[in-house]
Amino acid sequence: MPYTRAQTVRGPPVHYLTKRLLRQLVRFASLFLSEDRSRALERWRRGREEFRKRGLADAAVVSYGKSGRTWLRVMLSRYYQLAHDLPDNIIIGFDNFHRLDPAVPRLFFTHDNYLRDYTGHRDSKRDFYDLKTVLLVRRPQDVAVSQYFQWKFRMRAHKKDLNRYPAHGADLTPYEFVMDPHQGLPHIIDFMNLWAAELPKLRDVLVVRYEDLRAEPVDGLGRILGFLGEAAKPERVAQAVEFASVENLRTLERDRHFWRSGSRMTPRDPANPDSFKVRRAVVGGYRDYFDDEQLARIDAMVRDRLSPDFGYDSAPAAADQRDEPGNSSSSATANAAHSAAARKADT
């Protein structure tokens, strides 16, 4: 099927030009604004773009950063490539697959970070009430550690400032980062608690736990595809899961297989495994980075402050951890497998 880089990456030319013009205007205006107002204006601009996508989307895929979205995104991409004969070196990103084949849904992938800066809905999930939504969640301790390595080895300085991460180049231990109130464990817990409180108000939502998807990826991916309206073929689902194995994703990232999708799937430093987008993918691996006293404090914070709705209110037992399937190169161990791949929240 013929396609161009503009079609698969940049989107319709008129929108692309408008988006680029607004970005330049915001950058120019920021030269005359305080740091706080400049940050707010840039977040508003990004929220405006998210609002546009939200209005056109057939469904949303929402997650806190480093909750396994890239893995899910590659599995979805591979399934749609196989089912709809699409190019294999791009990753689904909103409507790029839809423009190649209208049978593929337009998916609004978001970390739910900027949209509220445009709509003003900071204390609710009103922006998702009437939009079919997949909510991907992960044990917050693992998310926080993954965030640490993203911040340390991959994140650009501008994005750190934009989202109030610790300063670029700061010398922080994993524990110091995880306990940071702005982007550490407290912030992750607040994010998850608001979603837990708002889930009953969403018209159509599927909650997927990363740990369950790891334990039963074929069943889990099939359920997600069905929720998105695809009559999924089991053999293609299995192929998509195999394609997205940790070891294969690392190889694809090293070889820049998804170069058409920008820098999302490229290592910052090929010689440093911690700079890869796909790093360890281990359930319960956060335990490898803290001493017993630090672990006790971290787990107590989750137990005392996190809503029990997602099933993370108790810490994983160390004796139950083991390597993830398809992740033999990891030295860490994984949580006991969960049998359910996903669950739909009460509406």
Give a description of the structure.
It is a single chain. The chain has 347 residues and is mostly helical. It has a single domain, classed as 3-Layer(aba) Sandwich (Rossmann fold), CATH 3.40.50. It has 15 helices and four strands. The chain has helices spanning 5-10, 13-30, 35-56, 69-84, 96-100, 115-119, 140-153, 157-162, 174-178, 185-198, 210-215, 217-227, 234-243, 246-254, 292-305; strands at residues 59-63, 107-110, 133-137, 205-209. Helix 2 runs antiparallel to helix 3 (35-56), helix 4 packs across helix 13 and helix 12 (217-227) crosses helix 13. The protein is globular. Residues 1-11 and 319-347 have low confidence and may be disordered.
The end-to-end span amounts to 41 Å
Helices and strands, in N-to-C order? HHHEHHEHEHHHHEHHHHH
At CATH level 3, the topology is: Rossmann fold
- The CATH superfamily appears as P-loop containing nucleotide triphosphate hydrolases
Count of all domains: 1
CATH architectural type: 3-Layer(aba) Sandwich
CATH class, please? Alpha Beta
Number of helices: 15
Strand content: 5-15%
Would you report the number of β strands? 4
Q: Biggest β-sheet, characterized? A: 4 strands, parallel
Task: List low-pLDDT spans.
Answer: 1-11, 319-347
Class of secondary structure makeup:
mainly alpha
Q: What best-fitting shape do the alpha-carbon axes yield?
A: globular
Which strand order do you get reading across the main beta sheet?
Answer: 2-1-3-4
Helical amount? 40-55%
